[in-house]
Design brief:
heterotetramer; A alpha+beta (213); B alpha+beta (385); C mainly alpha (379); D alpha/beta (194); A: 213 residues; 6 strands; B: 385 residues; three-stranded antiparallel β-sheet; 47% helix; 14% strand; disordered N terminus
Chain lengths: 213, 385, 379, 194
Amino acid sequence: MFYGYGILQGMWVTLKQFFASYFKKRGQDGALFTVEYPEQRLPEKERFRNFPFLIYDKEPENLRCVACDICAKECPPKCIYIVREFDKDGKPLKRPAIFDIDFTVCMNCGICEEACPFEAIYMDHEFEIASAERNDDLLYHKDDLLKSNAYFHKIRPNDATAVDAKLKEAEDKKKAAEAAAKAKAEAAAKAPPPPPPAAPGTTPPPQPPKPAV
Amino acid sequence: MNKGEISPKNEVQHDGQTLEINVGPQHPSTHGVFRMNMVLDGETVVSLKPVMGYLHRNHEQIAENMSYAASMPYTDRLDYFNSMSNNFGWSLAVEKLAAIEVPERAQYIRVIMAELTRIVNHVSVIGFLLNDLGAFFTPVLYAFREREKILDLFEEVSGARMMCNYFRFGGIKYDVPQSVLERIREIVDKFPKFLDEFETLLTKNEILCMRCQNVGVLPAELAVNASITGPMLRASGVNYDIRKVDKYSIYDRFNFKVPLGKKGDVYDRYYVRVLEIRESLKILDQALKEIKPGEIMNKKMVPFLKSPRNFKPPVGEAYGRVEAPKGELGFYVVSDGTPQPWRYHVRAPSFINLTILEDLCLGHKLADAIVILGSVDIVLGEVDH
Amino acid sequence: MESIFVNLKGAILGVLGKFMPEWTMPIHSIMISITAIAVLGPAIMMYLTLMERKVVGRMQNRIGPNRVGKWGLLQPLADGVKMLTKEDIVPKGADPVLHLLAPILIVAPALLLFAVLPFGKGMIAVDLNVGILYFLAVSSTTTIAIFMASWGSRNKYSILGGMRAVAQMISYEVPMVLSVVPVLLVVGSLSTRQIVEAQASGWFVLTPWGFFGAVFFFLCTVAECNRSPFDLPEAESEIVAGFHTEYSGMKFALFYMAEFMNCFSGAALTTTLYFGGWQGPGFLPSWIWFFLKTYSFIFVMMWFRGTLPRLRVDQLMGLAWKFLLPLTLVNILAAGLWYYLGGILKFFIPLVLMAGSFTILTWLNKPYVPEKREYQFAD
Amino acid sequence: MKTEEIKALIEKALPGVKLKLVRESLLVENAADLPRVAKCLKEDPALKFDYLSSVTGADYLTYLESVYHLYSMEKKAGSIVLRARTDRANPRLPSLVPIYRGAEYQEREAYDLYGIVYENHPDMRRIFMWDSFEGWPMRKDYEQEDSETLEAADVEWLEKRGVKVSDADRAKAEELRKTGKRAVAQKPTGSPEA
């Protein structure tokens, strides 16, 4: 072919695309593929992960987190800071007094969700959290992070159902074990009292991470 | 050139009236914060010194200070175009170190994901190369249109579009639902049509041929000596593909060929990438036919998902390497029996491929130097690791 | 409709004539034409930016600007406001006088070019008898402004861009002038009005020499306007923004304005010289025909931009001197043959001549011809 | 080919070169022999290790080490791992750049991070860190801040943003501030290599 034929072929391709973008319907070859963001949105994928949130059952006081500090330890960029709550006598309680996540540091890897033994922390779908203040607005405190189990069901129905089933199973087992232990204790009247169920709080005392300054 | 001796850099004759310019670190076509210290005689490149490290974060030290599993999301950020391949390399190295078996379905899914990443990478690299050549974004946007479909799949499978963090030692994080496999099949079936159109736009274009042919010629001998890997090596005509040589994972089960160029110029590097996409499509086609339901995680490794810090590989060392889209991605890991690796090293392909950048560019024009850099295919997250 | 603008001008002059003395009338006539052109220039530029973004966007399957106004129609205004409110930066060590003068000097000739364009029947500001010569002479002064910008901004990228621009624009002027010569030979006049009128019986593009002349002239125009694939002086992937790297705000906008106005006048001159100017079937007014033709050439320029990669410096020069220059010279010969031959030979011989020299030149320019490549598939 | 066989082959070809098997790899006991060994590996017709995949440093507390992974592109075989050791005070090793161009940037990287000076390298400069940077960041004794301990500035930062800091952390931070020290991470004591 003559010199310049390749160029003409290429120009034919772009011209075809030019007309296709006007006349073809979305999804067809050569149609527009822009999603005009604030008005149009892509469907949310269930596994989509952005920043973590804390789950509570029914009431916000009932949060699942027991301040075991595992997520803070496993977090690769160390963006989680946890301080356990103590009661008046200085006895540690199974709940966090402080649970802060620095979203400027978080890298959305999902390892906290994977490592949490109590199904308490999960990755959220919420991504519109832009703010004008970098440090203050993106440092999320416990109250900002708390979201209900119902919300979890809304964004990730399959995962939430599986988690609920798992928790229920564990609870049933625990109850059964307790009942069995009770029965056993009653049976052996003067035997030593049964040991308390293994508390998750037996992990070493928490060491707070250092937030980025 | 004597075999086994360092190649003499071809000196460019000039009259001493030169202009020194810094191309980068903030320049539209250095693909990130990369700097080339160029000396020009007119427009001819007389000397070129790459300067890097603007994105250096001591990735290796970060990894040495955390558990093996926690490094996985950091490998995503090495070559942020191909997080799946990076995951593959790192899990391969650790699996070699701790002798972990991977179930078959997981192997298939790994291969599918790695090949999809290769397609994503090659198709967008061609687009970027054309941008460096001066085409006003058209090829890159066509490439991104197709890439978008694959990234949507990645999001559905792993939860993130680019930073997938999908592989785990001994398997993968989530299973791939049948519906997604069907969508991959659809993409694989439709992709050749798009590639044909893409090639009509580019391959025979006289301007592209004028700009790319006989520019930045890399002889096979120098390529081997300078440890060049990936499509760049194969464009020079050296038959070396780690998928074929090491047969890691289950690549020995697939029937595919290694496309080789002859001259090793920018055009060959471009076209070898096009051909590699077609071979990747063949692998995907076979993998999608053969994949069967089954386990996705090694049972022994499941407990370590919940407690990565309990994973302590035996004392020893391993070097795991994969054929990443940019070349050989190697992970050298030394374990001292603690939850943290004693030594963690990344053999970053695009970093090492830059070794001969000056040799390729000398004597060419400034515009060619940009194109040659584009054809090397660098990602600064990996170069500066 | 046909002479709406001509009548409008006449009406304004008629109103003015009641207040003003008779001898000022020519001055008023000139002032009205100047005002029309001075408004037309920026208006064309503003909407060409929108058109370019829309056209290239659609070629890339994007939407293009659509947020400001319906279909983004107010986008140029928003851009204008942004440009005006931007900080005007003069680099330290730059030559402030040259830096300031360059954008002014680049817009002035671009506006001056509009004076000889026949926008429609009787719609020409000045019917110079050396119209084409005037056009070519004025358009070549852009080179100086570009060089002033590149020298005045004290930036190495600017210098590179300026050197490229000078080399390119001077080189392409030669084939550009030579490709106009056949038209002048056939018409026998340099006046744009007469050239258009000479095409009443048939557009020149329908003759062999006219077809090739139109192609060459259009290519040279694209190169003169520094547009893709000849946009080396401002090659964004190589030298950042070339000669206007160090310009911001309204000064930068002036460069842009000059580029688009040059585009428009280049496309308009292609229309005038080869495509019958404002001539066309009578169901549309002449000025609509003119703008339709001109805008389709601008569309082609945008189409080039959306498709083609850029040439290299040496290849660009090679294209001008080794390819276009000989071909335009042969084209003059072809025009002469066409003029003196009769019957079918009139078309046949010039075509063969051009095709033959095209083939020979392709063969002579081996480095520019794509090599055939073969690829192995190893196991 | 097994590492032992290669070892025997080299020892035969290059008398006087002492090699030791360490974890399936060859330790070149006298580092000055390294280029000779590499050249032999590259040119011996039975070996043809023409491709130097990776060069890296490593710190084993009592000595520094440079590890080379070699493959053969011609024979599609591999790998062989070479090691060379040098003392920490004045780490010097011969460069492999005259034999393998591919070592050029990787040796610069090892120099940058470990301070191993490769003699005979054409351009021994830092590659990632800036030229005036002091210290060798990948060495195990490089002083790293302890990211788990709060310092006075961190406490102040947190409290300004409404985060309550536990008393124990506050006391620790106060103590650090008084002594003028920074929270420094623990340095490793034992290395995995005997």
